[in-house]
UniProtKB/TrEMBL annotation:
Keyword Flavoprotein: yes
UniProt entry tagged with the keyword Flavoprotein: yes
Domain Luciferase-like: 28-272
Entry keyword set: Flavoprotein, FMN, Monooxygenase, Oxidoreductase
Lineage of producing organism: Bacteria, Bacillati, Actinomycetota, Actinomycetes, Kitasatosporales
InterPro entries, per database record: Diverse_substr_monoxygenases, Luciferase-like_dom, Luciferase-like_sf
Name assigned to this protein: LLM class flavin-dependent oxidoreductase
């Protein structure tokens, strides 16, 4: 682990983790898709001291599944949040089960440029058959095949991010050259279902490689910077964290907190009248802010960070901001991003060398 300070992430998609969270939202339904909504949540999270916000996504049309009935694409929302924030990391959820990895890598590299090196990528899978029809692609129903697509997609994206060396853009007025072609590279990837030649159409991201987050049972640990681990109790989370095999480990935690108007249990019961809060196998805290602080203090012994999924954003995020993060800061248990730092730097991850540049240096040394 990176040290005694915990990195806190928060999921800000929709109205909250509960499918009926919209019933307790403080805004009118038409405001869910407004830029002001995204910017407001991002600002609250940044001012509170969160390391990272994540933005869930889905390709299915309104009403096709539980959760938000409409949403703007996660990458587009992330780009808007990046332009309106200055320190917090921003990681959209982008599956590559059906999406073209070349286009995904370009979008994410652009996001890293927009955010000045604060971008991440949460890799997930599209499991529902309706998603294949929405993409106009053949169904990938087998779990192993979906894992293969995620593995290949991350490999292609990482290779494309390296296909431009850091000094490929030279902007030489004297020679009228914008690029040094010798510093652009073909990646020549050939997988089981597709091939990608490259190079990318976007210069290398400021971080070199974006921070890639995902489940180590879905994406090989060697391809991840951050493992998202699950477990319904501390012991299960600790076991999963110990087996992750990634540079950093973040636990998934759902939270429902006591508010001035109602206890957490009362708020959950109110929403459960409409639909169930599905069990995703994650640690779940329903109680006071002090109890959550104590839980996070225990988790710091096993993980580097926690991704919080608030029951209702409009009710739980203010409590997290006013009570939870200040209490953690007072005890020096939380890591707050600093201005001018990249997400990799905030997480204590080194900026990786460009694979093609490193290979050229190695070849020169071998030739001596």
């Amino acid at each position: 682990m990176s040290g005694p300070a915990l990195h806190l992430a928060v999921e800000i998609d929709g109205d909250g983790a509960h499918p009926a969270a919209w019933r307790r939202a403080a805004h009118s339904p038409d405001q869910l898709l407004t830029p002001r909504r995204v910017a407001g949540l991002a600002a609250v999270a940044e001012n509170a001291g969160f390391t990272l916000i994540t933005l869930n996504d889905g390709v299915l049309p309104p009403g096709a599944a539980p959760g938000p009935l409409a949403r703007i694409g996660a990458v587009e929302r992330a780009a808007f949040a990046a332009a309106s924030t200055s320190t917090i990391g921003i990681a959209p959820v982008v599956p590559v089960t059906y999406a073209e990895p070349f286009h995904v890598s370009s979008q994410l590299a652009s996001l890293d440029h927009i955010s000045a090196g604060r971008a991440g990528w949460v890799v997930t899978e599209e499991e529902r058959p309706e998603a294949a029809r929405a993409w106009g692609r053949p169904l990938i129903a087998d779990a192993a095949a979906r894992a293969r697509e995620s593995r290949d997609g991350v490999e292609v994206a990482r290779a494309l991010w390296d296909s431009w060396e850091d000094d490929a853009v030279i902007r030489s007025v004297a020679t009228s050259r914008y690029l040094d072609r010798e510093r652009l590279h073909y990646i020549d990837f050939t997988g089981e279902t597709y091939a990608v030649k490259g190079p990318a159409i976007v210069p290398r991201p400021p971080q070199g490689q974006l921070v890639v987050l995902g489940r180590p049972d879905r994406v090989p640990a060697a391809q991840l910077d951050v493992a998202l681990v699950e477990g319904r109790d501390l012991a299960s989370v600790a076991t999963a964290a110990a087996a992750a095999g990634t540079p950093r480990v973040v636990a998934e935690v759902e939270v429902a907190l006591d508010t001035p108007d109602a206890t957490a249990a009362e708020r959950v019961a109110d929403l459960e009248q409409h639909t169930a809060w599905s069990d995703r196998g994650w640690l779940r805290h329903v109680g006071s802010a002090d109890q959550l602080v104590a839980l996070l203090a225990e988790l710091i012994r096993h993980v580097d960070g926690v991704r919080l999924h608030p029951l209702v954003l409009d009710e739980d995020l203010p409590v997290l901001s006013r009570l939870v993060l200040p209490a953690l800061s007072e005890r020096r248990l939380v890591a707050r991003p600093l201005p001018g730092t990249s997400l990799r730097s905030t997480l204590g991850l080194e900026r990786p060398a460009n694979r093609f540049a490193a290979a050229a240096v190695a070849a020169q040394e071998d030739a001596r």
